[in-house]
User: Fold this.
Amino acid sequence: MTPDDPAPRPGPALRTEALEELLVERGLVDRAVMDGFVRTYEQDVGPLNGATVVARAWTDPDYREWLLRDGTAAIASLGFTGPQGEYMVVLEQTAEVHHVVVCTLCSCYPWPVLGLPPSWYKDPAYRARVVREPRTVLGEMGLDLPPERRIEVWDSSAEVRYLTLPRRPAGTGGLMPDELAALVTRDAMVGVAGVGAP
Amino acid sequence: MDAADLGGTDGWGPVVRPSDVEPEPPFPHPWEGRAFALTVLTMGRISGRNLDAFRYALSRLDRASYLDDGYYGRWLNAAELMLTDSAILAPGAVEARARARRGEDVSEPAVPEPARPDYAPTAPGSLREIGSPPRFAPGDPVRPLAEAPAPTAKLPRYVRGRAGVVTAVRPPHVLPDTHAVLAGEHPQHVYTVAFTARELWGDGAEDATVHADLSESHLEPR
Assistant:
């Protein structure tokens, strides 16, 4: 190998294997503990938690009032707590105002209710642009808002994590909370989509 | 914050349309789950550093290390940086092992003498109780500092020096400026501050309000 013909730098999969092996050799990492972390975020912590919160707020006015006043406590009452969600604030979508959430400095996200962030939320284009041209960005993502609806962008650049409470779609009056929760997507709870009728 | 401070920057092209990528599992590639777990363990236990130190490590990555391997790639690179900061790993150790694993004839650097910092937070998480009342109240006109007071400060470039209004007082949190470099927690109130898009981006801006969460010491009355 010459300086003009270097072997390419190993990719992230190989470097991850290397780091894991180095730390296991030193007794600093237990593979079973790692497996547990991965499994938790693959199976237990995800947007269904947030959808359960939303469905409850849609069907219980007292809970909705509590959720908007003290999101962290109202969410914890349903059993959803944990890292990256010590202090959560819920923003209600209305006919007048639309909320959309971003983290321009990293990818802060309310893990206990939404799980780990999706690729579009972590993408530099979203982080860079949604604070500057939110209506255009939302349109690119498939959400065309009426021109009269105000847009509020929330940049979670400290330890405050936001969840939006989507508008309940018409024609869902007879649905049970678990049927309502099934309609609520993670995109809607970040504010880049609405909730469609069933 | 350099590599990480993206708000308002140009040249990124279109955003990802969610319907083009969903349903999306948490870890589309198995290595991403391993990198996630390794990083969580590194920032919590192995390196003796913390979440703010992790974010600072992310911001110190060069542009390629930050962007080229995606989200968990940058986590992996920041974890390695925290581990070399603590001399748990020698610089270059990960790359040498990775090259060895694919059959290259490389010599690995010697294991250094660990210098894991003797530092522990006063409590879990970042919320803290403090004795002093908040300096600002909702409705107060404020202006973030024009310059970041430390490279570790979480003060997005696009709000620096801009006129805003406090919209909410949040509970006290540890201050990343010092906590990231293990120089104390210095908890203080956090405020949600609203800026008009016109104030941030000029007269041609789309009509919108942008809220940012900012530490008390990064704000001045106006």
Notes: Residues 5 and 60 of chain A are 66 Å apart (CA to CA).
